[in-house]
Amino acid sequence: MRRDLRLLPVAGGVWAVALLCVFVPAAAGWCALAAAGGAAFVCELVLRRADRAASRAALVLVVLSAMAAVSISALASLSARESVASWDGRVVEATGDVTSSASVGRDGRLWMEVQLTGIGSPGDVAPASAPVRIGIAPADGFDLGSHVRVTGEASATDPGERSALVVYASAAAVEAPASGVFAVAADLRAGFVERSSMLPDPGAGLLPGLAVGDTRAVSMELNDDMRTSGLSHLTAVSGANCAIVVGAVFWLAAWCGAGRAVRVISAAVGLAGFVILVTPEPSVIRAAVMAGVAMMSVLIGRPRAGVGMLALSVVAILIADPWLASTPGFALSAVASGALILLAPPLAKELRRWMPGPLALAIAVPAAAQLACGPIIALFAEQQSLVGLVANLLAAPAAPLATVIGLLACLTAPVPVMADLFTASAWLPAAWISETAHLTAALPFAQVLVVPGLLSAAVVGIVSLAAGIVLADGLRAIPAARVASGAILTVVLALGCAQVVLRGPLAAMTNPDGWAVAACDVGQGDAFVIRSQGSIAVIDTGPDPAPLADCLRGLGVTRIDLLVLTHFDLDHVGGVDAVQGMADVVLHGPPGDVGDQAILQRLADGGATVTTAYAGLRGELGGASWRVLWPTRDLRAFPPGNDSSVVVEVGGAEVPRSLFLGDLSAEAQRMLARTAPLSGGYAVVKVAHHGSADQDAQLYADLRPTVALFSAGAGNDYGHPRIETLDLLGATGASVLRTDQQGRLLVGLREGDLQLWTENRPP
User: Fold this and answer.
1) For residue 189, how far is the Cα from the chain centroid?
2) Is 133 in contact with 112 (CB distance < 8 Å)?
3) Which residues does residue 121 pair with via DSSP β-bridges, in sequence order?
4) Are 625 and 561 in contact (CB under 8 A)?
5) What band does 504 get if pLDDT is binned at 50, 70 and 90?
6) Phi and psi for 424 in degrees, rounded to 5?
7) Which of 414, 436, 395 is nearest to 244 (CA)?
8) Are residues 68 and 14 in contact, defined by beta-carbon separation less than 8 angstroms?
9) Distance of alpha carbon 399 from alpha carbon 701, whole angstroms
10) Which of 32, 95, 125, 487 is the most buried (most CB within 10 A)?
11) In what order do the strands lie in the sheet with 735-738?
């Protein structure tokens, strides 16, 4: 069936203008003026002519009019947003209405969207209207529709972000609870979450997310597994949930013998009720509109009309809120819905040649979504799931059951016996999805690390297009296209297999046997590995799990005897997920907030013994020994952070005497020299704070390092390592090794002599 694609240019033009307006606010007025002027000119042409050219001009008129509308919408919001953003870096008091469900972030805070009604200095709040994002300590009552007051430090967002400001609240209160249907929905959700929490894991924490989009009980580990396995769209209210609801209601109405009109109306009413139940925040409304349009067009057999309906929905949503154009969620919803309309039917038709129709459709829907969304994900995310299609196929039978039965459990809360029965019934499919996520995420190379941006999106897009051409039946008349696509997939598969072999079974074989100290190349951050007689210590984890996981895999590390977290800055603990469940003992510096405590709790949940480090602690690592030199137990001079970094000395047997200085500043280094039993002649010294300029020259002169390790990211914004620090270490006679230039660094001992290896040739 030929699709009517005439309205796609309208949606594309509006989307492009919306992106320009939100990323370059100064252009909004010019865009509105140019589009309105162009629309007036074309309108005059349309009125003068009545031939075929006039119909084409009418389409141009629609495009320009829509562009003008979205530009005016953006222009109307800019003044209020700029006024709110002017509070950047200041302590503010803000009031507003909660417009989203709350979710727990990696920092342990409860995060939600709020539409401001006022903002100002504490005690002096003036009227304001703009969307902001607030983070508070976990608390109850912050439901959609409630009116809240918060006090905290404000931070302006980057251009293009929907929230004009982020507020890290130190105090928060609910001034007026949610009322009306929002209050009823909140009570139903709360009752369902309470019932779910009484069930065992796995499944208990995931069930509220699958059914009503409440992800507060989803652990960080499960959340990461869901993302790695490509199932994260199920843990919050997305187009998949909305499509399931539409399909279920449509099928139920058809089973009852209702006509097409009644089925469509019933599905629409059911979707509206679902949106209210799970909180009608902008992201949910967007997902509901997109999925509703796509599912309706497929269910009533009108994919030709579905494309136009989807395009009009995109235009209407962007005119209402132009800042959605820059959000990944909006792009994924639109593209996935388009794939459901355009790509899923031909995929299903082709697959029916080899399998039953229901199975073909079950495979075609997630496959179409994965192929279409891959390039969008590559624009924003640093990893691509390689097991997403398989995981979605395994989860496909369980997702509708968990969603529909969970909704029934939520709606029957006034009848406890029924609610308990439905909740228990929904637990099994939720547990299935949880185990699917865990098992597929644990597969070797479940995801591949990419550099987000246009180039990655283009590469993924070419591969996705080739896969779509090979699978679909729409291009049988163009054999060359299939041959070229097959060649592309063959090359990609060959490269992938080579990568698996080289970074999997053969990874550890690419390193020399004699290494004892390794500096992992994790970008702008620290991650070091010490090995002695098969025992492993890791000092810090870098800013991201993927580079550390690659480094540990390459070094053949599968378990960690000692994990040291020197302090809780992101560039030292951001990659902690890579060692989750691998560490036996964790030593850490002073935690600063609930987010730091949450990291330690996750490590403890993974089986680690967690201990606060202080000067005087010591222990054994294989044939070597370690001791903590800093911070002192009674230290009060420095708050948690750089200057309270754990300083560790390791040495003995085949491990050269090494000192790891964390991120100490010059002042803390001088105090370390006065309080710690340091003596010169260190073989290896990890230079403090990535080689910043804030160093104590006398300390390094006293340490007399043979090798100075600098762990920094190439082209970082801080200028690390600084030239004066490089000169300082050079003056001590140390050999300088840098991860930003030489990649992974290895140091070992052979017959008393230091052996050095670098991943890249020194410049």
Assistant:
1) 25
2) yes
3) 124
4) no
5) low
6) -65, -35
7) 395
8) no
9) 63
10) 32
11) 618-621, 624-630, 647-652, 655-660, 684-686, 707-710, 735-738
Q: What is the number of other CB atoms lying within 10 angstroms of the CB of residue 37?
A: 12
Which of 53-62, 227-236, 500-509, 651-660 tops mean pLDDT?
Answer: 651-660
Report residue 760 CA to chain centroid gap.
30
**Alpha helices for 236-355 (secondary structure H):** 239-255, 260-277, 282-299, 303-320, 328-342, 344-351
* Phi, psi dihedrals of residue 434, rounded to the nearest 5°: -60, -45
Q: Give the chain's mean pLDDT.
A: 81
Q: Is-contact 217 377, C-beta < 8 A?
A: no
508-758: same fold as 86-179? no
Other C-beta atoms closer than 10 Å to the C-beta of 726 total: 16
Which pLDDT score, from 0 to 100, does residue 489 have? 64
Q: Is 46 helix (H, G, I), strand (E, B) or coil?
A: helix
pLDDT per position as a tens digit, 203-216 = 788 888 777 777 77
Q: Domain spanning 508-758 has what CATH number?
A: 3.60.15.10
| Measured distance between the N- and C-terminal CA atoms of the chain, rounded to whole angstroms | 60
Q: Does residue 341 contact residue 304 with C-beta atoms inside 8 Å?
A: no
- CA dihedral over 124, 127, 133, 134, signed as positive or negative: positive
Please identify which residue in the block is written with the tokens 């800042």.
323
469-489 pLDDT tens trace: 777 655 455 666 666 766 766
Instruction: Report, as an integer, the average pLDDT of 736-744.
Output: 91
Q: Can you tell me the distance from the alpha carbon of 519 to that of 662, in angstroms, rounded to the nearest whole number? A: 13
Segment among 55-69, 186-200, 714-728 with least mean pLDDT: 55-69
- 498, pLDDT greater than 60: no
The DSSP string of 168-200 is EEEEEEEEE---THHHHHHHHHHHHHHHHHTSP
Position 41, amino acid:
F
- Torsion sign across C-alpha atoms 114, 118, 123, 124: positive
d(CA 218, CA 209): 8
pLDDT tens-digit map of 127-168: 888 889 998 888 888 887 889 999 998 888 888 888 889 898
Crossing angle for the helix pair 344-351 and 357-380, to the nearest 10 degrees: 140
Is residue 674 packed enough to be buried (19+ CB in 10 Å), middle (13-18) or exposed (0-12)?
A: exposed
The Cα-based distances of 496 to 215, 385, 459, 499, 507 in angstroms read 34, 13, 14, 5, 14
Which element (helix H / strand E) includes 153? strand 147-156
* Segment 263-286 mean pLDDT: 72
Q: Which position has the token pair 């509708």?
A: 400
**Could you tell me the two tokens for 253?**
């109405």
By residue count, the chain amounts to 763
User: Rounded to an integer, what distance in angstroms lies between the CA atom of residue 234 and that of residue 434?
Assistant: 11
- Amino acid at position 492, single letter: V
Buried-state track 415-424, b at ≥16 Cβ within 10 A, e below 16: eeeebeebbe
Fold of 86-179: OB fold (Dihydrolipoamide Acetyltransferase, E2P) (2.40.50)
Cβ proximity of 657 and 678 under 8 Å: no
Residue 1 has a pLDDT of 44
For the stretch 334-361, what's the b/e string if a residue is b when 16 or more beta carbons lie within 10 angstroms of its beta carbon? bbbbbbbbbbbbbbbbbbbeeeeeeebb
Sign of the CA dihedral running 276, 278, 281, 286 = negative
Domain segments of the chain as ranges: 8-79, 86-179, 182-230+405-443, 508-758
Confidence (pLDDT) at 296: 60
Among 307-316, 381-390, 593-602, the least confident range: 381-390
CA separation for the pair 117, 173 (Å, rounded)? 15
